[in-house]
Amino acid sequence: MDAVPELGEIARTARVVALPMVTRFRGITVREAMLFEGPEGWTEFSPFVEYDDREATAWLAGAIDYGWRAAPEPVRDTVPVNATVPAVDADEVAAVLERFPGCRTAKVKVADPGQTLAQDVARVAAVREALGPEGRVRVDANAGWGVDAAERAVHALAPFDLEYVEQPCASVPELAELRERIAYLDVPVAADESVRKADDPLAVAEAGAADVIVVKAQPLGGIHRVLDLTRRTGLPVVVSSALDTSIGLAMGVRLAAAMPELPYDCGLGTASLFTGDVVDAPLRPVAGALPVGRCRPAPTLLDRYAAPPARFDWWMERLGRVHAVLAASAPA
Ligand SMILES: O=C(O)CCC(=O)C1=CC=C[C@@H](O)[C@@H]1C(=O)O
Ligand SMILES: [Mg+2]
Q: Domain 7-69+299-329, CATH 3.10.310.40 — does that match?
């Protein structure tokens, strides 16, 4: 990676926000994020709070890439996005989809801890009903199933015509086995955690364990690194969010805009899962798409959503530790 800016240069403008969410998503109802300004503009460092420093290092590299290095030229000026449906009850689906105007594709969370397959089926059925036969429905299990449970679930969900099943199982060998077992159902397998949390993000593609790969700019070390990775996989790519504020979402949009091919709608509509944001015009989908361009936080919103002082201190300490790890791994 490129030289890392001094810690003081990053810390000088750093702010920490806590954005309230509309519904619980991946176990949280408030999203904390650190924002700071580099020569290219504002950028975001927001590894989930339970991630250790090692995992957070790639997120900091991603934040620095977007703040300190010119982004690659876009080849499109808007990016189509999907609605993201948390693990809500089926009768709440219509209200969730209303927050994603014009989106023809929906990603539905399934295999949530404590929920049953019957609840997943009911939720996916409600999404298919709402989108109609032309809509595209994908599901994301976040590695919540073993191979047998995944096979049963994909069998039960396939009648709703799935675009793909994202990270049904945790490991690459499990994904490979499931992919063979469900080949007759014609439901492609997408890899997410097997890309962004792996030591080798290309291993899942090389093992032939996925048909599609999901990439996220911040967790994978930034726009330039992801473009390099995706060039090498040869698989179709879906750019998705890391549940970022509109600052980080704009980074994802910029990555998606630079992809030579973009066959799938991107999972970047997640500003609609927040009740507030740091920019005056949050990056929420309009007519199913997001515009390409940088976002600047509004000072009043940085104040309104400022995290409590103890949380600011926690993030500054985390930044210091993670910066030290990153600086030690970078060329002088
Ligand atoms: O892909 C989408 O529709 C939205 C982004 C999204 O689902 C996620 C963002 C951040 C963390 C993850 O748990 C989750 C995912 O697994 O893809
Ligand atoms: Mg996922």
A: no
Position in ligand 1 atom list of the atom nearest CA 167: 16
**Residue numbers annotated as active site:** 109, 216
**Mutation pick for ligand 1 pocket among 22, 169, 218, 241 (CB with most ligand atoms within 8 Å):** 241
> Per-residue pLDDT tens for 15-74?
999 999 998 898 899 999 999 999 999 999 999 999 999 999 999 999 999 999 999 999
- Parse the chain into domains and list their residue ranges: 7-69+299-329, 78-291
CA-closest residue to ligand 1 atom 11:
242
Q: Is the distance from CB of 241 to CB of 63 less than 8 angstroms?
A: no
**207-239: per-residue pLDDT in tens?**
999 999 999 999 999 999 999 999 999 899 999
Residues whose CB falls within 8 Å of the CB of residue 228, separated by 6 or more in sequence, listed in order: none
The residues with which 162 forms a beta bridge, in sequence order, are 137
Q: What fold, for 78-291?
A: TIM Barrel (3.20.20)
**Contact status, residue 72 vs residue 63, Cβ threshold 8 Å:** no
Among protein residues, the one whose CA lies closest to atom 1 of ligand 1: 267
